[in-house]
Amino acid sequence: MAEGSGAPSYERIDRKVEVMDTPYDRWASSQGIDVIRGFFVDDLYTMPLKWWNRVGGYGVYIMLDGTGYLDDAYVCAIPPGKNLNAQRHMFEALIYVLDGRGATTVWQSSGPKQSFEWQTGSLFAIPLNARYQHFNGQGDREARLLAVTTAPLIFNLFRSEDFVLNNPYAFTDRFCGEEGYFGGKGVLYSDRVVETNFVADAINIEPVAWTERGKGNATIFFEMAQSMMGSHVSRFPVGLYKKAHRHGPGAHVFILSGKGYSLLWPEGKERIRVDWTRGSMVVPPEGWFHQHFNSGAEAARYLALKVISRKFKLQPGKIQSDVPLAFGGWQIEYEDEDPEIRCIFEEECAKSGAEVQMPKYR
Ligand SMILES: [Fe+2]
What is the pLDDT of residue 317? Predict the structure, then answer.
């Protein structure tokens, strides 16, 4: 056979291959609700919502720049005295109760149903692809939920709404209708990780001191429903800020209480500042340094919802969020930060009357 004669004879087309929108983007924009984009959201409590037929309530998608399309967020409201439609999906979901009181029932097709009650501040995970339904327990006001999910990752991998939303596979190794599954029992490990399936009140839960991340800082991590997603609550007292650090995409930082700001910057580039208060949310983009400052007159708390489980890894390697850059970690120590950062903080605390408690290092 002559050299080159085995080459197939392709039809030639005089244009570049078509670049498709991501399946997730097509799906999200087909839902009939707004998709908010950008860097930061001011206030999830007052965001306008639209009727969301698939879910049977009101909602808005929040697809912020820093997610890396690993995860997304949505806010949904259950009308007074009503329930949402029953759902199941092949993406993971962490749910935080922004406001209200109600209950959720979770079940596998062939197993018993488990129901549990929630209120403002509750946090839980839906076991992967289990069936579930939310109920508003109050007849005179809506209930508002925040969800962070892996929908972008899953839709873009499989490109099939039917596969993602109507998949009969039951992950019974994660949940098979066990009595007490959402009862709030759990264990606290020595590295501040709680393994549980329900946190009744993330606003007031007592975190564990973690001063390597900053003076006065305390944090508690949650591993729920055998999920690939993780979450944590951090608290920092008046007059203090955390050390800057960086990591992968998709950490949704939602402000539970307090008033302050965050600085975010890619290495060597200009800093971006976002001012936050209760209800704000920001997602630091992959690899960007970010630093959270409590410049208000009371303790601040945030809840981070992300595709980082401390138990189930997407990739090997140690989480090094409290290891200094000099030792190969992800964190900038106070003494190594740009001195302007301290100056800005002192000015902001002076404005709110907060006394600066930061350690002196120069
Ligand atoms: Fe972070």
Answer: 81
The CA-CA-CA angle for residues 146, 319, 128, to 5°, reads: 40
334 C-alpha to ligand 1 centroid (Å):
16
Contact between residue 232 and residue 218 where contact means Cβ atoms under 8 Å apart: no
Partnered with residue 159 across adjacent β-strands are none
Element (H, E) at 343: helix 339-352
Predicted confidence (pLDDT) per residue in 59-115, tens digit: 999 999 999 999 999 999 999 999 999 999 999 999 999 999 999 999 999 889 999
* Two tokens, residue 127: 């076991």
Helix (H, G, I), strand (E, B) or coil at 348: helix
Q: How many whole angstroms from 262 Cα to the centroid of ligand 1?
A: 11
How far apart, in whole angstroms, are the C-alpha atoms of residue 190 and residue 210? 11
CA distance 328 to 168: 44
Instruction: Report the DSSP beta bridge partners of residue 223.
Output: 195
Q: Distances in Å between the alpha carbon of 345 and those of 3, 239, 278, 298?
A: 71, 9, 19, 15
Rg of the chain in Å (alpha carbons): 22
Q: Cα(57) to centroid of ligand 1, in Å?
A: 32
Q: Classify 239 as helix, strand or coil.
A: coil
Closest CA to 73 of 109, 120, 37: 37
Residue 144 Cα to ligand 1 midpoint, Å, equals: 26
The mean of the pLDDT values for the chain is 95
Longest Cα–Cα distance of the chain, Å, equals 86
Ligand 1 centroid – CA 307 distance (Å): 12
Dihedral (CA of 265, 154, 44, 124) sign: negative
Distances (CA, A) of 72 to 148, 161, 342: 6, 16, 33
Confidence of residue 362 (pLDDT cuts 50, 70, 90): low
Handedness of CA 260, 265, 267, 270 (dihedral sign): negative
For residue 125, the CA-to-ligand 1 centroid distance in Å is 21
